[in-house]
């Protein structure tokens, strides 16, 4: 079994042109089983974007809701995971036309993994991220990955590649608008 230490997730990267378009990844499900809000994930305290993609904030975002979860979510290679996005770091807060994100803000949704010695480490740098999922523009339907996030009420589902070696990893799921 591959153990993925999914304790961190970059909530998103978005342009600063639209303040209502931001979203936060704050919950994960494995094979349809929800792991709980902020369990195994470093949830940022706001939906503000990381603007400097060469900063260490791209690894884990910044200003996390405290206490930061020390849980490690176990995921086997080949299993299905679902990232849950919402407009607020607190998750779904009731009717909000911008939940999980502003539907007019279009862009791809991507997921990356990076191997780490310990998924609970809070000050990692220099990670070797590799992409495991992308939902970009569908030229036939003219829909972006962000459209699918909105339609699916904030859920993005993808498989952890079956070729992933056992170990601890950080998962970054992002919506780029």
UniProtKB/TrEMBL annotation:
Entry EC number(s): 1.14.99.56
Auxiliary Activity family 9 catalytic domain span? 23-176
Chief subcellular location equals secreted
**Sorted UniProt keywords:** Carbohydrate metabolism, Cellulose degradation, Copper, Disulfide bond, Metal-binding, Monooxygenase, Oxidoreductase, Polysaccharide degradation, Secreted, Signal
Task: Using the UniProt record, name the top-level EC class of this enzyme in a single word.
Answer: oxidoreductase
Q: Name one Pfam family in it.
A: AA9
> Do the record's keywords include Oxidoreductase?
yes
Q: Where is the signal peptide?
A: 1-21
**Catalytically driven reaction(s):** [(1->4)-beta-D-glucosyl]n+m + reduced acceptor + O2 = 4-dehydro-beta-D-glucosyl-[(1->4)-beta-D-glucosyl]n-1 + [(1->4)-beta-D-glucosyl]m + acceptor + H2O
Tell me which domain of life the UniProt entry assigns to the organism this sequence originates from. Answer: Eukaryota
Q: Which Gene3D superfamilies match?
A: 2.70.50.70
**Protein purpose:** Lytic polysaccharide monooxygenase (LMPO) that depolymerizes crystalline and amorphous polysaccharides via the oxidation of scissile alpha- or beta-(1-4)-glycosidic bonds, yielding C1 and/or C4 oxidation products. Catalysis by LPMOs requires the reduction of the active-site copper from Cu(II) to Cu(I) by a reducing agent and H(2)O(2) or O(2) as a cosubstrate.
Domain remark in the UniProt entry: Has a modular structure: an endo-beta-1,4-glucanase catalytic module at the N-terminus, a linker rich in serines and threonines, and a C-terminal carbohydrate-binding module (CBM).
Name it: AA9 family lytic polysaccharide monooxygenase
Naturally occurring in which organism (per UniProt)? Hohenbuehelia grisea
What taxonomic classification does the UniProt entry list for its organism? Eukaryota, Fungi, Dikarya, Basidiomycota, Agaricomycotina
